[in-house]
Amino acid sequence: MPYSSYDDFEFKIPVGTKGDNYDRFQVRLQEVKESVKIITQALDKLPDGPTITDDRKIALPPRHELATSMEALIHHFKLVTEGMRVPEGEVYNAIEGARGELGCFVRSDGSSKPARVHMRDPSLVNMQATPAATEGWLLADMLATVAMFDPIIGGVDR
């Protein structure tokens, strides 16, 4: 389901028709071209102004302020050594990554350090499609097929 500001950009969704490695490679090339179009449109629509909050209790002050402002130095020290306190609770949020849905689960006990963090990497889900994608193919094609899934091995290691 689209989220964020997809409606603000013009792009095509590349789709292959054969399902072989060459077809997936061609789709990947088209995805790169469409991504460049989206990035160009996003940069054109980027508003002028600050890109980070001025609230020094949650964002590090600019480095040049550390030499001249005791308050900036204190906020920097507290953020780096203690972090910021997050209310007690838990949340799961997912975004679209280059390889699929990238999810993050965080549980907070109210301190400045998370009680639990779990990342859901799409590589594990993608690799589970390997048997279907290689059915009836030669063993020699397996390496190229796995490479086309572009897995992050750390995300597959369970």
UniProtKB/TrEMBL annotation:
Q: Which residues form the NADH-quinone oxidoreductase subunit D domain?
A: 2-158
Q: Name one GO molecular function term.
A: NAD binding
Pfam entry (one): Complex1_49kDa
- InterPro entries recorded: NADH_Q_OxRdtase_suD, NDH1_su_D/H, NiFe-Hase_large
Gene3D superfamilies noted in UniProt: Cytochrome-c3 Hydrogenase, chain B (1.10.645.10)
Q: Which SUPFAM superfamilies match?
A: HydB/Nqo4-like
Q: What is this protein called?
A: Unannotated protein
